[in-house]
Design brief:
Layout: E1 7-9, E2 16-18, E3 23-27, E4 30-34, H1 37-45
Antiparallel strand pairs: 1-2, 3-4
Bound molecules: zinc ion (ZN).
Zinc ion binds next to loops.
Length: 61
């Protein structure tokens, strides 16, 4: 068995996905891979919550 599969992570659900078969999109020059079109749509439309637009992850603005 070969073990050289390019596996990456779905940024939406965190699941490992195979770059060769995963659905993907480009943003800011990077390619993102998803386990399903569902996760792709979530990624495109943003988080379901009603967060204000802007960078996430900052605690103190
Ligand atoms: Zn997913």
């Amino acid at each position: 068995m070969k073990e050289s599969k390019p596996i990456t992570k779905d940024p939406v659900c965190g699941m490992p996905v195979d770059e060769a078969t995963a659905v993907h999109t480009r943003r800011d020059g990077k390619t993102f891979y998803f386990c399903s079109d569902n996760c792709l749509q979530k990624f495109i439309s943003g988080p379901a919550g009603s967060k204000p637009k802007g960078k996430s992850g900052g605690c103190c603005g």
